[in-house]
Amino acid sequence: MRVKPSEIILSITLCIASILGIQSETSYYKGFPVYAWVEYILLAGGLAIPILAWFLRSPSRKSKE
C-alpha cells in the first residue's frame, strides 16, 4: 500500500475542515480569525498529501536510485 491510512485520514480531515470553513464564510484557527485564503491552502494540502505520498513511494522511483 503506497498511501498509509494515517495519511488518508489526515487528508480527509483537512479537506472536510476547509470545506466547512469555506461554506460558513468564517475562518478560525484555535479560536482566532484567519484570512479566508487559509482555507484554500488547507484544501490544497489535503488533496496533495495522498498524491505526493503515492508518487514518492512509487516503484519506478525506487528502481532509479
Task: Note down, in words, how this protein is organized.
It is a single chain. With 65 residues, this protein is mainly alpha-helical. It is built from 3 helices and 2 strands; from the N terminus they run αββαα. The chain has a two-stranded antiparallel ribbon with strand order 1-2. The chain is elongated and about 45 Å long.
Beta fraction? 5-15%
Helix content: over 70%
Shape: elongated
User: How many strands?
Assistant: 2
Mean pLDDT: 87
Tally of separate helices: 3
Unreliable residue stretches: none
Radius of gyration (Å): 15 Å
Strand order across the largest sheet: 1-2
- Overall SS class: mainly alpha
Question: How is the biggest beta sheet arranged?
Answer: 2 strands, antiparallel
**What is the H-and-E element order?**
HEEHH
Number of domains: 1
Q: Alpha-carbon distance between the termini?
A: 20 Å
Q: What key attributes describe this structure?
A:
65 residues, two-stranded antiparallel ribbon, single chain, 3 helices, mainly alpha
What is shown here, in short?
This protein is mainly alpha-helical and 65 residues long. It has helices at residues 5-24, 37-56, 59-64, and strands at residues 28-29, 32-33.
How do the strands and helices of this protein lay out in sequence?
Elements: H1 5-24, E1 28-29, E2 32-33, H2 37-56, H3 59-64
Antiparallel strand pairs: 1-2
Helix pairs in contact: 1-2
